[in-house]
Every structure is written in structure tokens, then in C-alpha cells.
Amino acid sequence: MSRVAEALIGEYFASGTLAQLPSRHFINGQWCSPASGRQLETFDPGTGRAFAAVAAGDAEDVELAVAAADKAMNETWRKVLPVERSRILQRAAEGIRTNAERLAIVECLDNGKTLDEARGDVRSAARLFEYYAGAADKLQGDSIPLGPDYVSFTHLEPVGVTAHIIPWNYPFSTAARGLAPALAAGCTAVLKPAEQTPLSALLLAEILHQAGLPAGVCNVLTGTGAEAGAPLVANPKVCHVTFTGSVGTGSLVMQAAARNITSVTLELGGKSPAVVLADCDLEAAVEDVLWGIFSNAGQICSAGSRLIIERSIHGEFVERLALRAAQLTLGHGLKNPHIGAITSLEQLNKISAYVDEAKKRGVNVVVGGARGVDPQSGEGWFFQPTVLDNLGPMDRLVQEEIFGPVLAVQVADSVEEALLLANATPFGLAAGIYTRDITKALRLARDIDAGQVYINEYFAGGVETPFGGNKLSGFGREKGLEGLGSYCRSKSVTARI
After folding, report:
1. Strand order in the sheet with 306-310
2. Mean pLDDT score, 444-465
């Protein structure tokens, strides 16, 4: 562990907080107090105690942030050359890497995830800015052949002011996932992080400002969804909304945006299947399925939260999986256990309610099934890695997103039945396939209704691969070159000569 990390972790456990954490909005290139004067506490899920406070924003703060973004769009940012946008984003990537340890520790405290997971998120965010820095000066249109008497071409323009509603499960990397392509395309932005995890977006805005981003191009305001998020997505000067979160809230965002004919990208819930066929590499598949559901304490939209397994290997596979799950340690994220805390007490209660209800009706809990605490302090919001076996296709544990370390197991008697089970939910975000037969794998990949399919490695891919869902999992794609599409509009120009 680096000396920086050791010093910060020591400071936190000695004082219960960290020095110089942001506590105000970042609007128009400067720190701004909320119009209401109110603040919101932010909690360390590993202890269940507040360790910082941020501005409680409302509609008045939203208006200031959107006005700053609109002014910067019209007066400053649109005049910056694409190559200079590229350089700013590259400097931002370097700034993230320079501050990586502090960013990871703050993310760990705010979210509850393990330090290793937070470090991975920071690396991913830096890579996102690096990737889109390379695209900023390569956004070009097409020449359209209309014959010798015409010149016709398309020109890509930024859509304008963009709003980004950031979730609490991956606050730093998700902020970067939407912001980097928006800035690369020439848009300005207003970010509203989740009230549970507000700090890293504020730190990101500061890094961008230090990288040379003009005032007003990136603004971050904190507050609740009702008081800050709702007026942001409903603001008529916002030209595009990127939202990551629950299906219910995503529907409300879409309705609010529709009143202004504002476009949206929605990355919503999932109930993604890991389809394990009898000819798989059993040992490798067990390990991969384990981390497909228990990474980030299962708080991942695309988590492999359903195991669909052929009957002939069902018993052995679940037994091995349960043994591995029982070996995983819980604990405060800064102590780097296998699994960190649940981000909020509200979410912990939701997870617990699902599992308690399943126990009452006799569902087979193979492993886990109860709340936990940090073993050293006896504090925090934790839930044991849990496997629930042999569930029917319409069981609520199969059909509904739990968003926690809970795996629902379904048994199939054939590849054809496995496909039917995989598609038998209202979600379509991701899917995993485990088999040595590439023909079976590619046929399943073709026929499973999901935005991304992983073969023999869950979460395969990276910044370069498009990400998004079908059905209730949303629409639009982020990451990769497709991620730029939401932030550009095409203008055709035709001249008779």
C-alpha cells in the first residue's frame, strides 16, 4: 500500500473523517453554497455513521448550474478547437491517475465498496477520459453523392447542455462514463450525483477545472432526487439527459424530459442470467459466477444475479459455489475484505426483506441469507453472500431486481430450456454463457435478448465495448464509440453548384 493511502486511512480511522472534503456545489468554475443554506450528511456504510456533509441543492441551484452550462456552451466551449478538447480530457485522465489513491479512498468511504474495487473504478474513469480524448478530434461527417450538380455533406454538432443523473453503486466511474463523451462531443454538463454518494463527482469537477476545462462547462450540484434531480431533468435548457438508476425513477425521468422533447439515455435495472452448460470448465465457471454476483456486494445493474444451470451438473456446481461463497469475508472497505458494505441502510433493508420473505415460504437457502457486520468493529451495513436454489421461472426472486449479494438458481434440462429461462424476465441488460462449445455459445449469444453477452468471462469487455440494455433495462448505449452518439446531432448541408 502506498504511503498516501496509509496516511489517509490512518487519518480517517483516527478522526472519523478526512480533511478538505468538498461540501459545496461546483458551479461556473467555483465552489458555491446552496441557496437554501441546508446540508445533507453522507454516511460511511462500513460504520453506519456520517463522516461528511454536502450542499442540499434545490431548484434555485439547478437554475444557476444550467444557466452556467448554457452560457459556457454558447460563449466558450463551442469555440474551443476539437484538438484542445482532446488535450483537456487527456490532462483530466492524468489528473485522475495522480489523485488515484485519494479518489479511491473517498469512493470507498462514500459507497462502502472495497478499496481494491474503488481503485479499479478510478482506473476505469481515467481510461474513459483517455479514450474519449482520442475521439474528440475525430468526430467527422460524411460526403453524400447526389451527382455532379450538388455538394452534400453531414456535420456532427454537440447537442448542447446535458444532464447526468449519477447512481450510488458506481458513482465515480459512471460519472466519467457519461461526462467524458459529452465533453469530447463539445457538450456542456450538469451532474447530479446520488445523495448517498456525492463526493467523487465534486472531486472530478475540481480535477477537470485544474486540467483547463473552462468555467461552466462541467457543473456538479448535490441534493436529493426530488429537490435537485427532478428540476434538473425538467429544465427546458437541458438538451439530453443521461440517467442510470431504477426502472421506476427512469420512467419518471423520461416523462419529465418528454415535456421538453429532450432526448434521454436510460441505463436501468437488470436480472441478468449466467447460463452454465454441462460442458463448461466447471472450476473456472464457479469462480466467475461467484464474482459475477458478489462483486461490489451485488450492487451492479448487470450483475449475474440468476444462475441458469443444466441439471446434470446442478448439484456439484451449487455445492462448490456455496463453499466458495462461505469463504468470502465481509468488512469495512478500507480493510480490503472480499465484500464491502451495502451502500445504504434503506438498500440493506430491501435486500433483507426479499431473503426473509423467501425463507418464510420455504426457499432453499444454500448459503448466507442474513445481515452481517464488520467483524472488527461490529458496525456497518452488510449482507452475507447468499445463494437461493431451485427457483421457478415466475418466482419474484427471479423476476425482480434485488440489487444485492443474492443469487437465484434455476435448473434447465436442455440448452433450449436455458434460453427460454434466460429471456423470461422483463429485463435485458446482460448475460453470461459458460460452455466449451463455441457454436452453442454463439447461438445463445444471438438469441438471448440482452444488450451485452459475455462468453466464459462475466463482465468481459471494457471502456471500448458499448454498454446498455433492452426491454425494461433501458435504451441507448454508453462506452465505446457508440457512447458518443447521444451527445451528437447530425446536420446535413446541401448546395447546388
Report:
1. 364-367, 386-389, 406-412, 306-310, 273-276, 430-434, 452-455
2. 98
Average pLDDT (450-465) is 97
pLDDT in tens, 318-341: 999 999 999 999 999 999 999 999
Say if residue 47's pLDDT is above 90: yes
CA 437 to CA 276: how far, in whole Å? 12
Residue 319 burial (CB count, 10 A): 13
pLDDT at residue 303, as a whole number: 98
Active site residues: 267, 301
Taking the whole predicted model, whether its pTM rises above 0.85 is answered as: yes
- Please report the domains of the chain, with CATH numbers, ordered by start residue: 3-268+475-493 (3.40.605.10), 273-462 (3.40.309.10)
Report the alpha-carbon distance of residue 153 to residue 144 in Å, rounded. Answer: 5
The model's pLDDT over 279-320, given as tens digits with 9 standing for 90+, comes to 999 999 999 999 999 999 999 999 999 999 999 999 999 999
Residue 342 near residue 382, CB atoms below 8 Å: yes
pLDDT of residue 1: 80
pLDDT in tens, 128-156: 999 999 999 999 999 999 999 999 999 99
